[in-house]
Amino acid sequence: MRGSLCALFISIISILLIGCGGSGSGAGVLPLATDAVNNESLTGDALIRLNVVSSNEKPVIKASTAGDEVNVTCIIKVLRPENPAQFDELRKTTTVSNGLADFFFPCVPARSALVKIVINGGKIGEYAEFRGAKDLTAGENLVDMAGLGSGLEPDVVAGAVENLSSKGSVCSNIQNNIVTNVKAAFATTVNVAGSTVPNLVENVSQVYLAQTSPTIPQQDNIKTYVNQFAKTASLLPEALNLKNANIRQSLRAGIRYWSWDDTYRNWSYFLPGHYYDEGMLLTFCFRDANGTGYPIIDAVPGINTVGIGNVIDVRSSYGKLRYLEVYNFTALSSNLYQISGLFEASLDGINFMNGIPNKIAVDIGNPYPVSGEFAINLTGVGAFSINYNGTCVADVVYVGDDGSRGSTKVIIAPSFIIDESSSGNARASFTPATAPAEMQQALAVFSKE
């Protein structure tokens, strides 16, 4: 039977870190020598208690082999406020005795810090390494720790802080309260992208940077177009799951029923708007090399393209708005597709926005484009370059018609421009609504431009 060591303090392992003015006398603390200190003379009065978060109800340290000695190494990296890419490191190792590991670090500064625990010769559950982060203040600080790679908040926040501090190009954006702000970014990321999005640490890092980025002209409109494109593109994995004519299924957009149109050779779904002349028509089909649409992906040999179209008519105080999207998703591999096509917006028939995807690649396992650029031109405003990186944040570079320039980051929250809530009764219907023929014709003409 594998040996186990019980916990004594708040959680799995009790670790006490006392600053220069701490009240700890050292009684009961194992005699420890500092293994590594790569910093100048430090002063501070921060007391740290570590609380290891685990999914186990009663977690314990288990030795790899019964009877083996278990050592615990504690590493503290205190960020330097003048240059967060650099830090002062404190490191000590002690043997676990009766389930208790005490550490004494003199003069811990009250700064943002990363804390790491490494269990040598044992594990807690499935983890031998734990990490956490805290904006230390004078007095007692409780630092939550979680298994490295567990995806729990302490693990992700610490990983994002370390990720940000290691990027020299973003050091100027990092303040001394970085941990508090990164925790806020974690909450935003989970709300927007979920906790299972690929590379959660990088997503949280990008959201933090977006929340501290400057604004640019027309930023809200650009976010609207980015979100619309992301929502339309999110239909791809759903379309790829359709191997036969049994198309009725719920999609991410809340859409329930599709119908095949023999005239325009596509599956279509029409969502009426609140007013008679409002609505959204979504279409998709599987295309061969000649551009002919088919209802199923294996209708003929060699199909490697999915065509997705979207036209939205909506009223505004300025007139009738129309948004048109036509995209081809061409397979680069079993999971990776490249997008080509057009995105156009007009007001009472006069075009005011053009968007062109430039080598945008999407992975069906990632809800956000992994690479590429979306080039948008707003008449009378300027040009915008939206660059994707596989996270829920896109980089935007702006060049105005007046010569002004700027850049920012925008958080992607996929959503259609039309307000679906205004037509909830139509969406609940068991009978698909019929789209105006003019909307299908507009998509057909637009796809040939």
Please describe what this structure looks like.
With 449 residues, the protein is an alpha+beta fold. It folds into 2 domains: 148 residues, no CATH class; 229 residues, no CATH class. Helices cover 17% and strands 38% of the residues. The relative contact order is 0.10.
Please supply descriptive tags for the structure shown above.
disordered N terminus; eight-stranded mixed beta sheet; twelve-stranded antiparallel beta sheet; alpha+beta; 2 domains; 17% helix; 449 residues; elongated
In short:
This protein has 449 residues and is of the alpha+beta class. The chain folds into 2 domains: 4-151, no CATH class; 219-447, no CATH class.
List the SSEs and their pairings.
Layout: E1 4-5, E2 16-17, E3 36-37, E4 46-53, E5 61-63, E6 71-80, E7 83-95, E8 112-120, E9 122-124, E10 129-135, E11 139-147, H1 153-166, H2 178-193, H3 200-211, H4 219-233, H5 235-240, E12 259-261, E13 266-272, E14 279-287, E15 293-294, E16 305-316, E17 319-331, E18 336-347, E19 350-363, E20 371-378, E21 382-387, E22 393-400, E23 405-411, H6 424-427, H7 437-447
Parallel strand pairs: 4-11
Antiparallel strand pairs: 1-5, 2-4, 3-7, 5-9, 6-7, 6-8, 8-10, 10-11, 12-13, 13-14, 14-15, 14-16, 16-17, 17-18, 18-19, 19-20, 20-21, 21-22, 22-23
The domain count comes to 2
Helix content: 10-25%
Please report the number of helical segments: 7
Radius of gyration: 28 Å
**Main sheet: strands, sense, barrel:** 12 strands, antiparallel
